[in-house]
Design a protein that fits this description.
- The chain is mainly beta.
- The chain has one domain: 3-Layer(aba) Sandwich (Rossmann fold), CATH 3.40.50.
- It is about 15% helix and about 35% strand.
- The strands form two sheets. Strands 1, 2, 3, 4, 5, 6, 7, 10, 11 and 12 form a ten-stranded mixed beta sheet that branches. A two-stranded antiparallel ribbon has the order 8-9.
- It is globular and about 45 Å long.
- The two termini are about 15 Å apart.
């Protein structure tokens, strides 16, 4: 039997005043295929570094440092503010231009910091107020070499229903 699932949102989240109005959050976002992966965490948590490693593995940048979220046809969609579109901060190198995807539907949220339990209970992230369906949330330590692979595995598992046992994503 599953208890109520927690819904998490970053502390700096500001809800939209009206539906379909952009909300601007401190996060990074990449697209793996057509699926958007939202990287959440405090300043210095490793969002840009993990985005770079995902990009190095074939992902495409949507936005780094700030992400505009909106709901389109019931789906949470991310895009970059115009002023930083296509720019990625590479610590120790500088701000560089990279290939960018205009927008992506968010299919996974990743909270960076301490890694969760070995076999975690399902968690979900959604904007406040709840403007759309919940988005699966995982917690990862971005410094681990396997972090990009874990994100790809989680995205595939959530997208294709590959979880086994009592992990219910509904």
């Amino acid at each position: 039997m599953t208890s109520a699932l927690p819904t998490l949102a970053p502390d700096n989240f500001r809800p939209a005043a009206r539906p379909n109005e952009d909300i601007n959050i401190h996060a990074s976002c990449v697209a793996i295929g057509a699926a958007g992966v939202l990287l959440l965490g405090k300043s210095g948590a490793g969002k840009s570094d993990l985005a770079l490693r995902l990009i190095d593995g074939g992902a495409t940048l949507v936005s780094d440092d700030r992400v505009l979220l909106t709901v389109r046809n019931g789906t949470l969609v991310a895009r970059a503010p115009a002023s930083i579109r296509g720019l990625l901060e590479v610590r120790g190198v500088g701000i560089i231009e990279v290939k960018v995807k205009d927008s992506a539907p968010i299919r996974l949220a990743v909270m960076l910091g301490r890694e969760g339990a070995r076999l975690p209970h399902p968690r979900f992230w959604r904007p406040k107020p709840a403007l759309t369906q919940k988005v699966p949330l995982i917690a990862l330590d971005p410094r681990h070499a396997a972090a990009p692979a874990k994100i790809r595995a989680a995205l595939a598992a959530f997208s294709r229903g590959l979880f086994r046992g009592n992990f219910n994503t509904k």
